[in-house]
């Protein structure tokens, strides 16, 4: 992580690109890397920690093998995205930003998947799905390994 941070520290506003690069490498930003990044940028640990915890984009623990992202932006909310999220929570036992106990699935909210005309929209892994009903979501979750 020191190598990544050192390589990118010359960028303007380097902290965010460094955190994205770290997350891309590891899948999350490990708490143990925060002091390393702070050292490279000559920031306080509290400053880096504050950014990691402020932005929801940064995960602080490894994600599940598959990520379910449920759009919660306006167009999808107007056609049932909130109810779909509540159904997902009942079905999986986890809320946004959480991972199932078996490490199979992480559930996240997202604000627009570019599929607004076909809401509610969800993404399972890399695949986008539109007009997702609770029953369809159950079927999609049944395919998750
Ligand atoms: S608002 Fe949900 S995909 Fe755009």
TrEMBL record:
Record bears the keyword Metal-binding: yes
Pfam family for this entry, one: 2Fe-2S_thioredx
Top-level lineage group: Bacteria
InterPro entries xrefs: NADP_DH_HndA-like, NuoE-like, NuoE_N, Thioredoxin-like_sf
Residue ranges of the TM segments: none
Alphabetic keyword roster: 2Fe-2S, Iron, Iron-sulfur, Metal-binding
Coiled coil, from the record: none
Required co-factors: [2Fe-2S] cluster
Keyword tRNA processing: no
Family from the record: Belongs to the complex I 24 kDa subunit family.
PANTHER family per the UniProt record, alphabetical: BIFURCATING [FEFE] HYDROGENASE GAMMA SUBUNIT, NADH-QUINONE OXIDOREDUCTASE, E SUBUNIT
Name of the protein described by the UniProt record: Formate dehydrogenase subunit gamma
Species the sequence originates in: Kribbella ginsengisoli
Upper classification of the organism: Bacteria, Bacillati, Actinomycetota, Actinomycetes, Propionibacteriales
């Amino acid at each position: 992580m020191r190598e990544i941070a050192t390589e990118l520290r010359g960028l303007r506003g380097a902290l965010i690109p460094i955190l994205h690069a770290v997350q891309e490498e590891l899948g999350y930003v490990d708490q143990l890397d925060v002091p390393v990044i702070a050292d490279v940028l000559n920031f306080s640990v509290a400053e880096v920690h504050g950014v990691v915890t402020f932005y929801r984009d940064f995960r602080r623990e490894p994600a599940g093998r598959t990520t379910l992202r449920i759009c919660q932006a306006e167009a999808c909310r107007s056609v049932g995205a909130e109810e779909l999220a509540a159904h997902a929570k009942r079905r999986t036992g986890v809320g946004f930003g959480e991972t199932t106990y078996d490490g199979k699935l992480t559930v996240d909210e997202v604000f627009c998947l570019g599929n607004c005309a076909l809401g509610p929209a969800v993404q399972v892994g890399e695949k986008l799905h539109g007009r997702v009903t609770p029953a369809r979501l159950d079927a999609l979750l049944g395919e998750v390994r």
